[in-house]
Specification:
Helix 1 runs parallel beside helix 2. The protein starts with a strand and ends in a 5-residue tail after the last helix. It has 351 residues and is an alpha/beta fold.
Length: 351
């Protein structure tokens, strides 16, 4: 059995996840077989009825109800996936998570328990302009988690957003670390199917936010509305066209790139999500390398994923729901980059 391309669709309540899933199903290639796993939080199933009632031939829908699949419903998840793969033999699996969930652990489970059976690809995070416009929402732990884990970040309902709000979203999203594979906008949940297959292997964003190209001018809004001209139901717009990743090879198969910044030399590394770091060795290296003036990274540790930020001698560590890869960006003067890289690779645990 070939690995089934699998995508998570996340987002807060009411952002349009189900609408997006239905639209994708209606536009899939005729004769292709897709499966949809819907995670309902309540006791009465709604989303799967909507999807099943709107889906074309070749679509199988199953529901995992009664809670978030990363916690209360976790025991039922393997059963649902087993029967979907056995009965439907899908060519694509879409998992729509509940708007109240923290689905990072679900990604971990899919990668570990279904290695060779599921090919976990881009996670799409959908944002409602009205949610983004609320400052308190950006501090909501669930919202933050969903943003962190999204590989492709999409602002839906652009017909309800002012040009100023779209610009604010674009600026905010461009400043996220690690950078997204894609930042886009759309209406009516219209998703470009190509976004489902974006991956770290063909990532078009640079390793580092300061390398981003300047954004194109914002088209004038249509008269009487606040919608960008490119953002229509039939044509999703890419809000931040990504440049290509630079060349370079680091240790143990990682990609690496050295470059100059206005503040001096810098280097970055990207590791496969399956690579796991020894927390003690890693943090000792990052905290005690005196030549480092600034660093930021995200790492797969033994029991969790964590972000690391250091400015001067002050360093902080925090859990994260990001799951695409481990990566590190270091700014330093007078650092022996080769020696640092060797120690970084030595902090990896054997596979």
């Amino acid at each position: 059995m070939q690995s089934v391309p699998t995508n998570l669709i996340t987002g807060f309540l009411g952002v349009g996840k189900t609408t997006a899933v239905i639209d994708m199903l209606q536009r899939k290639a005729p004769g292709s077989r897709w499966a949809v796993l819907v995670n309902e939080y309540g006791s009465v199933s709604i989303d799967d009825v909507f999807i099943e009632g709107s889906a074309p031939d070749g679509v199988t829908v199953k529901e995992v109800g009664g809670g978030c699949v990363c916690c209360a419903s976790a025991p039922f998840l393997p059963v649902a996936i087993h029967f979907l793969l056995l009965e439907a033999r899908p060519e694509r699996l879409i998992i729509e998570t509940t708007g109240l969930g923290h689905p990072a652990r679900l990604l971990d489970s899919l990668r570990m328990s279904y290695h060779g059976r599921l090919d976990v690809r881009a996670t799409l995070g959908i944002v409602d302009p009205h949610d983004f416009a609320k400052p308190e929402m950006r501090d909501n732990p669930i919202f933050v988690d969903q943003i962190q884990m999204a590989d492709v970040l999409v602002m839906n309902k652009l017909d309800l957003a002012t040009p100023e709000l779209v610009t604010d979203f674009q600026t905010w999203a461009n400043g996220l670390f690690p950078p997204k594979l894609l930042i886009a906008g759309t209406t009516h949940g219209r998703i470009d199917p190509a976004w489902l297959d974006l991956s770290a292997n063909d990532e078009r964003l640079p390793l580092y936010p300061q390398e981003r190209q300047s954004l194109p001018p914002t088209p004038s809004p249509k008269k009487g509305g606040g919608v960008r001209e490119a953002a229509t139901a039939s044509s999703p717009s890419v809000l931040a066209p990504p440049p290509f990743l630079g060349e370079g090879v680091g240790g143990r198969g990682s990609s690496a790139k050295r470059y100059l910044t206005p503040n001096g030399p810098a280097c970055g590394w990207v590791f496969d999500p399956a690579d796991v770091f020894d927390e003690g060795k890693l943090l000792a290296l990052l905290a005690n390398t005196k030549e480092v003036s600034r660093l930021k990274g995200v790492f797969h540790l033994v029991d969790e994923w964590a972000t690391v930020n250091r400015s001067g001698t002050a360093m902080s560590v925090a859990p994260t729901t990001y799951r695409r890869d481990s990566r590190l960006e270091v700014f330093a003067n007078g650092l022996d980059w080769d020696a640092f890289e060797r120690e970084l690779v030595m902090s990896l645990l054997p596979r």
